[in-house]
Structures are given as structure tokens and as C-alpha cells.
Amino acid sequence: MKHYILLFFYAFVFGASNLYSQDIDQITTDYLNGSVEDKMSLLFKHYSKLESIDNDTLLFFIKDLQNTGIEKDREDAIALSSYIFGHFLNNIGLYSEASQKLSSAEKYFMYDGRDSILVEIYNAKGNTAFLQGLYGKAEEFYLKSFDLGKELEDDKYKSLSLANLSRIYIINENFDEAETLLKDYIEFNKKRSNYRNVGTGYGILGQLYLNQENNEKATECLEQSMEFNLSTGDPKLIANGYTNFAIASFINGSLKRAEEYFKLALSYRLESEDYFFIAESYFNLGDYFHEVNKLDTALKYHQNSYDIALEHNNKIGVKDALFELSRIYEKLEDYKNQSKALKEYIEVKDEINSEKTSKELNVLRASFKEEHNKLNYKGNKRETMLHSKISNVSKIWDYWVLIVVIGIIILGTVVYFASNKRKN
């Protein structure tokens, strides 16, 4: 029976994954063939899906929208690209730069009066503060988003920040308030069939119950989160759902179930050939077997994680695997291999630290280039307006000269005829 359940899981997941891929293809086609309004609407609605593919894909769309805005003289398109770029910068940990981009977008849409986008911007600015541990500031932005959302006709804007507010309340151990917000958030998104948000809501609710040491309810919520994540067809959400449920099962003492779901996540990632997450799945299994004191098995999985991470230039994965390998070698009293692993660990760690600056510099350069393009666009726009004004002044001057000349001719004619009349 268990074999057929797993087959059902695989069939469902891979079917959903194919639908998800087709959805992305359709979005891309519609975007490339659309007007400026179409491009703005599609990117605003689907940027999270595009980001789930990889960062370069999302950056392509951000840059294209910005270039379209410059080419078509559409400052609203440029502002929207800044808003989405702010999200991207949040995700890679450049919070100061993210704040600048979001503030730039905020200024334009406040002037433009589009409160529906401002609600999203305030929520994103709350995320920037939250990711830095500035929970008071984050709560302020989330509440600002909520208050502005209440004034709009569509309830989706009012509910946008509820899940994020609940995270703040969980940190502050205000569990009752957080639970109320999450249940409202889940029910609202169920009615709208937004299963991505439903899965997120159940995931946070599961974390809330884990913090309260209510493992039974936590397991139930995390399982529901996994099921809704499956229904989205988003490969990352699906694999993460399996992994999170495995962790919850382990905490709950269901070791066999945890092992099964860690292996299920690995199987799914092997099929999808996402080598970054394959290395992570091997790492998770290595951790699991280390915790249950099966050191030889743990060594095998961590070695697999190391090999795949090394092959695909995943230096973070290499570093983490080396550290765990050194711990296992120490327990096995294999001090020679422990010393070797630690030496390589230090070398990779130093290499990562030296590369971090250059990676941030590249992103900052991209940010500067975007800002530079925007300034050029505004400068050209002002120059065009100035030329237009000068041209208008020149035309007015020409008209006045013509009027004066005509006036002189008329005056001369009148004087001439008046003089002749007197003579006669």
C-alpha cells in the first residue's frame, strides 16, 4: 500500500511541475508580446514565479521593464521595476540597497496615487526591516500596509501583511494574536484558491505550535502546508515542504517518518536535477543519521553532499559538508581525515569571504547602472521638455515680429493715404 501512495505522490508532483513549467512559458510569451501595460501587469502579478526559476531570469524581466519604460517615456514602468528590484535585493541580503529601491518606488506611486501598489511596497519595506531583525520597524510598515489596504475595495490588500504580522507576534510570544491572524489569513486565501499563500500560512502556524511545544498540532499544520505546496506545482515549494515536514517529524520523535520524507525530498530533487538542492538533501540526511548515531551512513551522505557541491561549484555546500565530515571523523577517531577536512574547510571559508565582496560589488554595480539609466532617462526627459519650451518661445517671438512688421506696414499705408488726402 505504501508503495502505491508514493507512486501517487510522484505522479501528482511531476504533473503539477509540468503545469507549472507551462504556466511560466505562457507568462513569458504574453510578457514579450505585450504592451507596456501588459508587461507591468504580468510582472507585478507573477514576479515570484519568475524568481522561483533563478535570479538571472527575474533580473532579465526587471531590466527589460526598465528599458521599456525609458524607451516609451513611462516613468511608472521604471518605478515598478525599482519595486521588484527591491524584492530581489532583499532576497540576496542587500538590505540598504533594497530600502533605497523601495523608497524610490514609494515616492513615485505616492505622487501617482496608486495605493494598491503602495500596499505592496510597505509590506516589502517591512520585510527589509524584518530580515535585519528590526522587528519594531517591520511591524510599523506591516501595519501601514494593513491600514492602507483596508481603504481599498479589494480585501486581498487588507490581508497581504497578516502572515508577516503573525511572524512578529510569534517572536514576541503573543501567540493568541498570531494564531488569530493566521487563521484569518488561511481562510481568506482558501476562498480565493490562493494555495501558495495557504501553504505559507499553515507553515507559519506549524512553527507557532512548535514554539508552544504542541508537536501534534505542529505536525498537522506542517503536513497541510506540504499538501498545499504540492498543489502549487512550484518545485522549490514542493521540495521544501517535504524537507520541513521531515524536520517536524524528527522533532516530534517520528524518526522513521522523518527519514522517509528526507529521502522523498532527495528523490524529487534528483529527478528535477537541481544540484544545489540535491547537495542540501544529502546534507540533511547526513545530519539525520549523525543524530541517530549511524556514523558510517552519515559519513556516506555528507561525502555525497560534498562531491556534488564541489562538482557544481557550490562553495557554501562544500564548506558545510566539510565541517560535518570533520565532526564525524573526530567521533570515529580518524584524526588524519579530520585534519584534512578542517584544513580544506578553512581554505574554502577564506575563499568564500574573499568572493563575497566581489559578488556584492557586482550587484551594486547593477544597481548603480539601473539608477544611472533612470537618471539619464529623467535628464533626457527634462532636456526634451526644455527644447520644447525654447521652441515654443521662438515661435511666439516669430509671431510677435510678424505682428510688428504687419503693424508697421498698416501704419505706413494709413499715413500715406492720409497725407495724399490732405494734399488733394
Task: Walk me through what this model shows.
With 424 residues, the chain is mostly helical. It is 88% helix and 0% strand. The protein has 18 helices and no strands. It has helices at residues 2-33, 36-51, 55-71, 75-91, 95-112, 115-131, 135-150, 155-159, 162-171, 175-191, 195-211, 215-232, 235-251, 255-272, 275-291, 295-311, 315-331, 335-423. Helix 3 (55-71) runs parallel beside helix 18 (335-423) and helix 11 packs antiparallel against helix 12. The radius of gyration is 31 Å and the shape is elongated. It starts with a helix and ends with a helix.
Ordered list of secondary-structure elements with their pairings:
Elements: H1 2-33, H2 36-51, H3 55-71, H4 75-91, H5 95-112, H6 115-131, H7 135-150, H8 155-159, H9 162-171, H10 175-191, H11 195-211, H12 215-232, H13 235-251, H14 255-272, H15 275-291, H16 295-311, H17 315-331, H18 335-423
Helix pairs in contact: 1-2, 2-3, 2-4, 3-4, 3-18, 4-5, 4-6, 5-6, 6-7, 7-9, 9-10, 9-11, 10-11, 11-12, 12-13, 13-14, 14-15, 15-16, 15-17, 16-17, 17-18
